[in-house]
Design goal:
Elements: H1 7-15, H2 18-21, H3 54-60, E1 64-65, E2 75-76, H4 78-97, E3 101-102, E4 108-110, H5 111-117, H6 119-122, E5 129-131, E6 144-147, H7 152-159, E7 171-175, E8 178-180, E9 196-206, H8 211-228, E10 234-239, H9 249-265, E11 270-273, E12 283-289, E13 295-304, H10 306-310, E14 327-336, H11 337-348, E15 361-365, H12 371-382, E16 401-403, H13 410-420, E17 424-428, H14 430-435, E18 438-442, E19 450-453, H15 455-466
Parallel strand pairs: 3-7, 10-11, 15-16, 15-17
Antiparallel strand pairs: 1-2, 4-6, 5-6, 7-9, 8-9, 9-14, 10-12, 12-13, 13-14, 17-18, 18-19
Helix pairs in contact: 3-11, 8-9, 12-15
The structure holds 5'-O-(N-(L-seryl)-sulfamoyl)adenosine (SSA) and zinc ion (ZN).
Length: 470
Amino acid sequence: MILRLPWRVITQFRRSNKFEAIRWCSSCEQPPARQRRPATSKPSQPQKDLYLDHRRIGQEQDLYMINELTPGSIFFLPHGTRIYNRLLEFMRAQLRGFGFDEVVSPIIYRKTLWQISGHWDKYKDDMYKVSDRSDGTDVGEDDDYGLKPMNCPGHCLIFDSTLRSYNDLPIRFADFSPLHRNEAKGALTGLTRVRRFHQDDGHIFCTPDQVEQEIKNSLQLVDNVYSAFRVPSYRLLLSTRPEKFIGALEEWDKAENDLRNVLEQSEVPWEINDGDGAFYGPKIDILIKDSNGKEHQAATIQLDFQLPRRFNLKYKGADGKDDHRPVLIHRAVFGSVERFLAIVIEQHQGRWPLWLNPRQLMIIPISHAQSEFAHAQQEIISGNASDKKKLFSFMAEPLFVDVDERPETLGHRMREAIKKGYNYVAVVGPKESSKNVLAIRNLSDQSNKTTEYSAAEVRDLIIGKMNTFE
Ligand code: SSA
Ligand code: ZN
């Protein structure tokens, strides 16, 4: 159903400029009163009294907005989208290394699917319903649909679409689909608890013998990713059978024991979180402590014997029989891109490491005479060649380079670039343009030193540094 607002309401919003004013929805906790920001561009350990919440930083850096017309759903603005896409590019590279195949799956499914999966019975309150066109053309059809809160049932349909053999397993599907959960309005908070979000989701279909290795790999992947993001510490919780559950008690005991065994072998400390498992299986939840000491549930690894049975999933075993039941492991490493981004924003306090920064280099021409030269350098460094008659190469790593040619003093433009969090600034004057170089200053280096590079060298320098994730 399309929500049609009377035009009067829309124009009232416009007149009162409410579209601007309600970037923070009324149910969100308001960002804290403005606090002084650290003056340097160096990422530093934030002191408690200067700590900025991700909502404040998100607003100051124009990363995202929320509108009351769709509470709990994020609009990523252009600079926020740059970071969002970097997170996905990064994760896709890791997933390829761990043998995942990405799929793109539907968002709405008939009620029947949710009845098979058990969501209709145990998870209905968290789901949005969608109606089909009720004009009688599909007589007898099940025309109640649900917007997906999880990808797993869809992945079970893919698994079940063809005959699988033990040789094919493990099959690992990755999916970055949007998910919707009808979270209580009062619980919505910035990017950490939202109604529409994107997990870096993965479902592994494997034989019972492969479970242990797959869970170990998942823990390894979590560790690799959290090290790249310099997550200061995380802890593991074994969440056991909840009140609302599907399946037999002995299956739950086995699944909980399997997870416990892997945890006992791992070197990371873990604890039990009684009764907090998913309705279909126990899970290892991974909690990250942010720089302010607050914990967030990010990654999760869940062991599930139920959905494979409910969807009657089978594979052909080495014995030639085709009635073997696969085991399903659900796992997400960021958890959701939204929640992980909130943690990363707060961790860096808005001072982005080069590889994540949506503002990597600012070129400042001293006068209008260097404008053309500045833009030519921008094109080379950013990888966005200007010849529109040619195809743009998808292999070219896009770098985020801006030119500030406003008629402001050099000092003013330099200060603004520092404030906005650029990693590098290049001032170009007559000397640089005649030598065909840029005088590059690294803003995290306090010495104010500049070094001359050609545009191609700057591009190589930035790409080289990005690959170190520093
Ligand atoms: N089906 C499994 C994954 O295959 C699943 O959905 N697990 S889950 O319900 O535990 O969600 C996984 C992760 O998504 C959580 O650990 C959390 O990081 C993130 N997440 C869950 N709900 C929200 C929400 N409302 N807002 C933001 N992130 C969320
Ligand atoms: Zn799942």
